[in-house]
Amino acid sequence: MTSFTPRVFSGVQPTGNLHLGNFLGAIKRFVDMQHSHECIYCVVDMHAITVWQDPAELARNTREVTAAYLAAGIDAKKHIVFNQSQVPQHAELAWVFNCVARMGWLNRMTQFKDKAGKNAENSSVGLYAYPNLMAADILAYHATHVPVGEDQKQHLELSRDIAQKFNNDFAKSIKGAGFSDGFFPLPEPLITGAATRVMSLKDGSKKMSKSDPSDLSRINLADDADTIARKIKKARTDPDPLPSEEPGLKDRPEAANLVGIYAALADKSKAEVLAEFGGSQFSAFKPALVDLAVDKLGPMGSEMKKLMDDKSYIDNILAAGSARARTIAEPIMQDVKKIIGFIRS
Ligand code: TYM
Question: Which pTM was predicted?
Fold first, then answer.
């Protein structure tokens, strides 16, 4: 296999209600990766329109995700921050991948089944083909590492299958074009840390999500300190004290979730948190979690609000990031066309 320079790519959909799961499962980890890797962070507006988005809200939410990236500490000068629709190679490569991926592969995607529910006949074609666009996002940059939450694991596996099938189907042409062995890397999912699947504060069996009708189920990144405190105080728990070791969290989904959140916010392991709080009642643990959450999220929320007041600042960052992204994706797409046999002028 050709060796590829390590490069990180990831994205967040601008669909409103950015929450603690998006932060701990993804954005916080994007920040960490930028110290060791070249990173490309995308606001995936083309993914968002796979379900209806009000145009004014879509633009607002695109700026909000960008503001969250910046407020969390992503350095848009050193790394690339942009919105997907400003780089046409995503759509171009996605079409090629629509012709590489198999129906059977997409039929297995659990997220489509969850999102489309009983109404699959009435879903957009885009919602069904969405994982092919996701593969294009990553592979248009030959990205090798993709930090995501656990819910994206299946989509990442599909991206690897697509890359592999393209490499196999076009093996002769790829060699002919001068690539020693394989054109696309097989991107690796990075699903790490104590909060790869943050659960609803109201129900430990449900993922924390942007679309949960109850705002109490999630902590939004735009929430102020009082709201964060109120939501944590109201979070569902069980009557027992916290265990001293991790196996004691088994069958206690709400307790496990709050401990995971604490650990991820404090950059500790769950074991370390339990060593500190084992034996404590929730009446003692929750106030400690409130202090930590307010301390970590409060400044970020205020910075996001400040950034949101300066639309042109954000739009300029997206424009500059998109221009840089195109300089990487354009030559890769040119090679894809050559490999496939498309005539280019
Ligand atoms: P999206 O917008 O649903 O979520 C953005 C990121 O947040 C993570 N996440 C969570 N992590 C932990 N606990 C949760 N409750 C939770 N909810 C969401 C997601 O795993 C994700 O990492 N398809 C992607 C966006 C995307 C993408 C890409 C990602 C498009 N192209 C290319 C990586 C590479 C999505 O819908 O994420």
Answer: 0.97
